[in-house]
Amino acid sequence: MSEETPSLLHRIGHLGATIGKKTPKKKSTQYLIQGLIAFLIFAFLVFTVASQWSELREKGVEFSLFWLIPAMLSMALYYTLGATIWGVILRFMGTPVSPGEAQKIYAQPLLVRYIPGTVLFILARVLLAEKAGVPRRISTAGMVYEQALSIAAALTIACYFLIAHPDLQDNPLRWVPLMLAPLLVGFLHPRIFEPVSRRVFTALGREPLPKTMPFSGVLAIYVAYFFTWCTMGIGVYFAARSVHFLDISDIATVAASQMIGFLAAVVSAVTPAGLGVRDAAFAWAVKVALPSGSFGVGAAIAIAVRATQTVVELIYVGVVTLIARRSEGESHEDVVDLIEEAANEEAVTGKSF
């Protein structure tokens, strides 16, 4: 008698449990297409700035390196706090890691975000967490907590901006964020998240989560992300200030504009690190804080913010990796191998369906 053929969900669950343990196969060509989309959108912003450069200078666009110092410090603090919150989430779920491991698990996959394909970032985080002793289903659930609460906090900051934005006064959808934020937080209540996650993991042929976060922990993480996003907003304001004069009273508008860019990147979920989509949305939003209301000036600010954030990410990942190498005797090639492994295994995922 032949054995019963496993269901599709069981095969998906088995795939998730074995990714990273199979022989790497050829990468999917969809990376090129996704990367091209990101390039075209970002190139449009650069073209807008270049074609209007003389006009932009008349509107007050000029570069000042002085303001980049507090911008970079604030952004570096944002990433450090993000990694700390990630470690707290794992602790709430009963699988604590050391502060150094939390920074490493959070930092190194940031490089993978610049490779088209959101799955790569998830795989890299899961693989690193597994090496630190965190089971895959727990790190995956932890990322659900992380993303849901981070998005809810960003929505909270962006709510007033969206509702009051002059371009959206005739759009009833501007009220949606008021409902989405509490829905995201409420979904993570143990009475909802625990049975839902149990059904999902059971359908995938995996063991249920041994522990979920208490709702008090969910609320604490939500508040932590709110203040963490405020830290990034301050960094974005200073980066924007390096390109164009902005009054200190505009800091809330600039910070909320960054949230708009982040949410646009979440919705698109196709371009690497939100490149292009995030920057275009931010340029559209931040123009409200400009006396000229110019999208071209907004684009110049968006490019400066993107460049600053990228430099900070590279420095942050480099510092964390260097500390890990010195404390654990880890070779630099491990980081590169992780990126290649995640990329190759994402290609395996795409072929397996």
% residues in beta strands: under 5%
Q: Span between N and C termini? A: 27 Å
Class per helix and strand makeup:
mainly alpha
The largest pleated sheet is described as: none
Specify the overall morphology.
globular
Number of domains: 1
Radius of gyration: 21 Å
Produce a short descriptive summary.
The protein is mainly α and 353 residues long. 71% of the residues lie in helices and 0% in strands.
Can you offer a commentary on this structure?
With 353 residues, this protein is mostly helical. It has one domain. It has 14 helices and no strands. The longest helix is centred in the last third of the chain and has 34 residues, at 295-328. It is globular, with a radius of gyration of 21 Å. It starts with 7 loop residues before the first helix and ends with a helix. Residues 20-35 and 349-353 have low confidence and may be disordered.
